Amino acid sequence: MRRSLTLLVVVLMMSVLIVGCGGNNSAGTEPGQATGGSVELGDGKEINYGTAEQGKSLDLPENYPIDVLPLIDDSVISFVNTNDSTQGIGILLLTDRSFEDAIAFYQGVMEQGKITMETQQDDMYLIIGNKDSYSITISITHPEGEKVNVLLDITP
Fold first, then answer.
1. Which ranges of the chain does DSSP label H, i.e. alpha helix?
2. Distance CA 114, CA 122 (A)
């Protein structure tokens, strides 16, 4: 379990590095409401993010390449992060599908790509690679008693 948590922290840190980070948060926070905001990067570009209200799903960004990295059926988009500078997109999905089904789905998605790293430990699965002209990181976790979490990071 400790290894899984360590790996999850590393994956989440990598996703922040891939999609981007910054300061000057301009988020709105009303209880029970979806939250979102943007972070100025200082070069006229920004990072935009949004967190869905519990039980609701956010919309995909217009430039998300759904044909390259599709979403697993029945998933709810609970978090979206876009970076104007790198064109990176981070999506957090929640699904009622089993951990094994989620892994099989995304292994199938990456069959047409090049996998540079793939690992699984307990309730944590990680795949990193390239598909078409995109760098892709997929992390799937299944915290005990919760839905399966799928973190997708895609950068052209």
1. 2-19, 99-109
2. 24
- How far apart (Å, rounded) are the C-alpha atoms in residues 132 and 98? 28
For residue 18, give the nearest of 134, 110, 106, 126 by alpha carbon.
Answer: 134
Residue type, 118: E
Token pair, residue 6, equals 């360590």
Q: Closest by alpha carbon to 81, among 32, 113, 38?
A: 38
Q: 125: part of which helix (H) or strand (E)?
A: strand 124-131
pTM of the model: 0.71
Beta-strand pair 46-51/76-83: antiparallel
Q: What is the largest CA-CA distance in the chain?
A: 43
Alpha helices in 32-128 (DSSP H): 99-109
**Helix, strand or coil, per DSSP, at residue 85:** coil
Task: Provide Rg for the chain, Cα atoms.
Answer: 15
DSSP state of 28: B
Token output for 122: 């307990």
43-81: pLDDT as tens digits: 666 566 556 455 577 888 889 999 999 999 989 988 888
End-to-end CA distance of the chain: 33
